[in-house]
């Protein structure tokens, strides 16, 4: 390992500063373009040691656990708290522009819809019992070291205010020093906790966990490995006006604000469409909103998510007909002939995108297509396939849902 002084030229796709060196790019986490920094070099990565010249766009990180000097080590939950908003917003929008350009798509990209602190209603924490305490937090960047957190400025006050309660429940569940995951979702009646990776529950630990939940206020449900252990109050989230009980640990958009922004873009684009397909529908984030005005066919591989969607649609008055189909859209995309009945289609795939589905959709006559994506690279690939099939890209809007990370969502609208 050598120590060097380097000049940072740009930000990489993961939010690291990049210095050009004779040996190729050097990635320096927590540095910014225009800075001169001292780094300990190990291969292509430089560990920030000192800042000789700081960027005017450097800001004081809001969280004490952030950065190379975090009090308990660097929490890996955030990577960009040191970048002031104008630079940070430009970085996120540029991720989408660059991804599209890499597939030859030159288009106007709308301004970023920003995120703010305290908005995350869903976080995934790691817990681990030590001899002295129960640690609860996030893993250190690129490591299994767990950083115990006392605060988390990205998470909602409803989550941060109950970190102690989550610790008590985790302590009741822990049987050894192995780390386990707790997916925390803030629902209308408190927190929905879904635990994975904990050793099989014996009766004493199960009883202690139930007692801990019942003794605490504001825990709506506790599940372990998908099994509901105790549910003092049925967890409810609302997609538009439709109440839904999501399956334990299932996909839910991480902030209400980003979800509402995406849904508004989707509904605007659908206009007066009468028959809509919602692919990768989850528990109905878009389908149940669309059903207020159009018939919807929701397709998804997760059976429990589809059941939640179906139950919500059946028990809500005034919706247009909603049909559901369990299907692996990577292996069995909807064929061009099956797409015929629809005048509009929404797809919101996982990070891998929806390449197999694009081949069929590109050949279809569906008039309006809305792509919702959490990965600009696969979005660009999928859009390029649709454009090659005769679709015209009308708009692309980047949305920040994961504050101070290098993740960005986008909604793209196409027409044929
Ligand atoms: C990004 S989430 C979007 C869910 C929903 N649209 C929402 O906003 O809540 C992607 C969804 O795709 C589903 N999925 C993943 N792989 C799939 C596949 N091969 N076929 C169908 N659905 C899949 C996941 O279960 C998940 O619900």
UniProtKB/TrEMBL annotation:
GO terms for biological process: rRNA base methylation. SUPFAM superfamilies: Nucleic acid-binding proteins, S-adenosyl-L-methionine-dependent methyltransferases. The active site is at residue 374. S-adenosyl-L-methionine binds at residues 253, 280, 300, 348. The keyword Methyltransferase applies. The keyword Methyltransferase applies. GO terms for molecular function: 4 iron, 4 sulfur cluster binding; rRNA (uridine-C5-)-methyltransferase activity. Keywords: 4Fe-4S, Iron, Iron-sulfur, Metal-binding, Methyltransferase, S-adenosyl-L-methionine, Transferase. Pfam families: tRNA_U5-meth_tr. InterPro entries: MeTrfase_TrmA_AS, NA-bd_OB-fold, SAM-dependent_MTases_sf, U5_MeTrfase_fam. Belongs to the class I-like SAM-binding methyltransferase superfamily. RNA M5U methyltransferase family. This is RNA methyltransferase. It comes from Xaviernesmea oryzae.
